[in-house]
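[SOLVED] Predicted holo structure with fe (ii) ion

Edit: marking solved, answer below. Original request kept for reference. I posted the sequence and ligand SMILES and asked for the 3D complex as structure tokens.
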Amino acid sequence: MKILAIGDVVGECGVNFLKKALPQTITDYEIDFTIVNGENALPGSGISLNITEDILAAGADCVTLGNHAFNKKDVEKAFDRYPTQIIRPLNFDGSLEGEGYTVLSAKGVRIGVVNLLGRIYLSPINCPFLAMDKTLEYLNDKTDMIFVDFHAEATSEKKAFGYYVDGRVTGVFGTHTHTPTADEQILPGGTAFITDIGMTGASDSVLGLKKEISIGRIVHHKKARFDWADTDPVMMGVIFTVDDATKKCTHIERIKITEG
Ligand SMILES: [Fe+2]
Ligand SMILES: [Fe+2]
């Protein structure tokens, strides 16, 4: 069985390219289940009900989020309409809208997806490691395999998390930095891991942001509005190959789809 995870979809360029590239990618790679991180899908970050529907229609089975999950209030409508298909980080305060994990099925296999948010160089939040422990107790006998989108800034925190859950989940992929890492591997306990899977959006940009705006902010301290770039789209992600009998990951492979 093959599970595809796609990195942060950024702005209109990212959504449009996802719509174009994802269906063909699912066919080409014979994907059975797709997870897409959509936390930056709206211009300026966040997600809406309409964009959630666009991402699901493009072929995603599950949409995950991150530190920008609640940037736009419209996300609550998406949680109401698709309570099992769009999730937000589990370790946000429990009183907030939405769930932090879901169990869906593909080819008769029960697939758990958990979304967590890191704490290093990000705003204070409940411990993602301990939140995962608690949720695993619940998910273990309700799932055949479990994948985690660990949305975090620090590579050290993501790698530590990979080892922390090694042998207890099927696969862990990092999101948030919009920059893919080349460290995909099967950890000693059998969990497939990659620190970051990159982004979907304009590659001629600074992490999806128009480069002139980014340079202005960084070099000249100009308080310009965030504006997403729209040239040279790319879709980045990772494919987990899982053995049908053992439900263990046998292979993890990065993909990068460009236009043409
Ligand atoms: Fe992001
Ligand atoms: Fe993020």
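OP edit: The domain at 2-202+232-258 is CATH 3.60.21.10 (Purple Acid Phosphatase; chain A, domain 2). Thanks to everyone who chimed in.
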